[in-house]
Amino acid sequence: MRVVSSRELVAAVLVFLVAVSMSGLSIALAEEPNVGLLRVSDVRHPRQVAPAAQVSFVIDVEYAIRFNATVRTSLFDGSPGNLGAELWHSDPLVLSAGGDQLWTANLTAPSSEGEWTLTAFAYYFEKGEWKYFTDPDQGPGFAQTKLKVAPLAALEIDLGLSDIPVKVDGSTARTSSLGTVTVQLPVGVAHQITVQLALLFDNSTRMVFAGWQDGSNDTQRTLILDGDLKISGSYRTQYLLRVSSVLSAYSYSEWYDAGSNITLRADDSVPMSGVFGTFGLRYVFRGWSGDIESTARSVTLIVNNPRAINANFDVDYTPIVILAILLFGIVGGAMLAVLRKRRSPTPTAIEEEVEDEPVGVCGNCGEPIEESWTHCVHCGKALGSSESVQS
């Protein structure tokens, strides 16, 4: 009889444990399902279609599969508890791992109006038959959906203002006192909606379209109805600011949103154009008047109503006055020089005056006398005798 060594015994035990371990693993693998998840997570379609119209259904199936598995989807008329005929089924598809699979089914809607109920199923093939999950953990492998079958749907347009014109497919309607207009339109076709960009209430107040609630700012847009729909738009108030001035650069009219903060600025002075500017004439800023009174060059106002403001400038004549004074001085000096020259004695007159110098003295009073005198202008003594004239 052969004795088993301790080394052989240990090896045998190890072999046995490995065999048991592999056997248990195989049993565990066999007990775990191959398809762990097969769920109809969503069925997407229009909310409403016209009778006998073509409609597409998108079936979204979420799955988790250990090894390859064959799956397919179906659409039935009716609810899960009251199924009718199968309307559509997909071709079988082999899937593995995990993810989402989309199937598209194109069907014809019923010819009569009403509510159409359908149920979508997701099947997996196992042991020769198609199965689906009914529990919420691995499924459910089905989902019910409903859509309306009717030719018309209601489109409500809310602009928040009454008596606002809205054009729909060429026909114009006006908003009610609540600021809305509602029209019935065919579903599944394109419709054109147009609103006015600006609504002028008077010469200085208007409403300007601010945009739609969904983010679009287009005053003309196209919609395809798949059921009743409400769209909202809004208008903002604007006021006209008029600034008047003798200078065209400071005269303008501009629209501003209500509540805007506006700053007006003016230069201290502005050169005149043309020949006046050549002489240095300028416009000097004197202040603002009208709906704001200030002498500051910069003013800020809130546009909460129409505004009319004047930017006042005066002409500064100082340069031309100074020039005129200078010219007058030059011309006056020249004229004075001419006059003085005209009034000054000529050489002949000077000579004559020299010739009229005294030729003697009066013998009576001793004052100088001239040759042409007959009497002394000093004492009145008659001249002519030798006694009356002394050399």
Can you put this structure into words, describing what you see?
- The protein is of the alpha+beta class and 391 residues long.
- Among the domains are: 35-149, Immunoglobulins (Immunoglobulin-like); 152-238, Immunoglobulin-like; 347-390, no CATH class.
- Helix content is 17%, strand content 50%.
- It has four helices and 26 strands.
- The strands form five sheets. Strands 9, 12, 14, 15, 17, 18, 20, 21 and 23 form a nine-stranded mixed sheet that branches. Strands 1, 2, 3, 4, 5, 6, 7 and 8 form an eight-stranded mixed sheet that branches. A four-stranded antiparallel sheet has the order 11-10-13-16, with no helix packed on it.
- The chain is rod-shaped, with a radius of gyration of 58 Å.
Low-confidence stretches: 9-30, 349-355
Instruction: Give the count of helical stretches.
Output: 4
Structural class: alpha+beta
- Overall mean pLDDT stands at 86
Range of strand content: over 45%
Please identify the top-level CATH class of one domain: Mainly Beta
Architecture of one domain in CATH? Sandwich
User: CATH homologous superfamily of one domain - what is it?
Assistant: Immunoglobulins
Distance between the termini: 207 Å
- State Rg: 58 Å
H/E topology pattern: HEEEEEEEEEEEEEEEEEEEEHEEEHHEEE
Instruction: List how many beta strands DSSP finds.
Output: 26
Biggest β-sheet, characterized?
9 strands, mixed
